[in-house]
Design a protein that fits this description.
single chain, 260 residues, mainly alpha, 3-stranded antiparallel β-sheet, 3 strands, 60% helix, 4% strand, Sel1 repeat family protein
Length: 260
C-alpha cells in the first residue's frame, strides 16, 4: 500500500463521502456555495436544528473543499504508516469493550447491533445509539461512523463530521476504520501483495485492534491454516469476537462452537 496508486485507492475508500458531499447538487436550504476567482471555493454550512450529530463537535462556519481533502489525505497517510508490513498475531490480546475504552449505555449499542439492518432506520434505536456516543461510548461512535460511511453524505455537515470521526478513529487506532478501508479495497479488487491469501494487512491490523468482526474473519482463516500455533490464536480470536457482546454471541457463537 505504499505506491501512489494504492494511495489513490485509499483516498477513494475513505473519502467517497467527503467527495460526494462536496460535488453533488444540493438544495439551497442545505448549503450555499461561494465562488472566488482568486481563492478556494468555500462551503458555508447551513444551521441544523435538532442536530443528532452535535456530539461529534462544533461545525465551522465554512470550510474549503481543499482543506477537507488535505485533512482526509492526512488521515489516510497516517493509516498507511500505522499498518506494518509484518504483524505478529502471537501478540493478540483479547479485550472486552470496557477494557478498550468507556462504554456507557452499552446496552443501547447491543440493541442496535442485534436489530441490524433494520436498526439503521429505527428512530428509537438510533436515538439511543447517539445518546451512548454523546456520553463517550467508543463502540457507539464506531457504529455511527459506519452508518455515515454506508452512503454518500447528504450535506456538508455530514461530510465534515464523517471526517472528524475518521480522524478520531485513526488517532485512537480503532480497528473498525482500518477494516472499513480494507473492505473497499477488497471490493475494488486491489491486491495486497504482503497480505497473503484471503487476509490483508488491514484485516489483521483491525483484528489486533479490537474490531470484533475482523477477529471473527481473521480467526476463521487462522483456524483453517493448518498450523497448530496459528489455529490456537485463531480460536482465541473467535472466542474474543463471540464474547464481546450478546449481539456478537448471537452472530458468531454457533460458528465458534463448531470450530472447537
Amino acid at each position: 500500500m505504499r505506491g501512489k496508486g494504492a494511495l489513490v485507492l485509499l483516498l477513494f475508500a475513505g473519502g467517497a463521502l467527503v467527495y460526494a458531499a462536496g460535488h453533488q447538487r444540493r438544495e439551497t436550504a442545505q448549503a450555499r456555495h461561494l465562488e472566488s476567482d482568486s481563492g478556494p471555493r468555500l462551503v458555508k454550512i447551513a444551521a441544523h436544528r435538532d442536530d443528532a450529530f452535535a456530539w461529534i463537535g462544533a461545525l465551522p462556519a465554512s470550510f474549503s473543499e481543499e482543506m477537507l481533502a488535505r485533512r482526509l489525505d492526512g488521515v489516510l497517510t497516517r493509516m498507511m504508516r500505522d499498518v506494518p508490513a509484518e504483524q505478529d498475531t502471537d501478540a493478540f490480546v483479547c479485550k472486552r469493550p470496557a477494557e478498550v475504552g468507556p462504554v456507557p449505555m452499552l446496552e443501547a449499542v447491543d440493541a442496535y447491533l442485534r436489530a441490524l439492518p433494520d436498526s439503521r432506520t429505527d428512530p428509537v434505536l438510533l436515538r439511543n445509539l447517539h445518546r451512548a456516543a454523546q456520553r463517550g461510548n467508543w463502540l457507539a461512535k464506531v457504529q455511527v461512523y459506519l452508518l455515515l460511511s454506508e452512503r454518500p453524505a447528504p450535506d456538508d455537515a455530514s461530510a465534515y463530521r464523517t471526517l472528524k470521526l475518521m480522524e478520531w478513529m485513526q488517532e485512537e487506532r480503532i480497528g473498525a476504520l482500518y477494516a472499513a478501508v480494507g473492505d473497499v479495497l477488497a471490493a475494488s479488487k486491489y491486491r495486497d501483495e504482503r497480505g497473503g491469501g484471503r487476509l490483508s494487512r488491514l484485516d489483521i491490523y483491525a483484528a489486533m485492534h479490537h474490531h470484533y468482526p475482523s477477529q471473527f474473519k481473521v480467526g476463521r482463516e487462522l483456524v483453517r491454516a493448518g498450523d497448530p500455533r496459528q489455529a490456537a490464536i485463531g480460536r482465541r480470536m473467535l472466542d474474543c469476537a463471540a464474547g464481546a457482546l450478546p449481539a456478537y454471541r448471537a452472530l458468531y457463537g454457533e460458528a465458534v462452537a463448531l470450530r472447537q
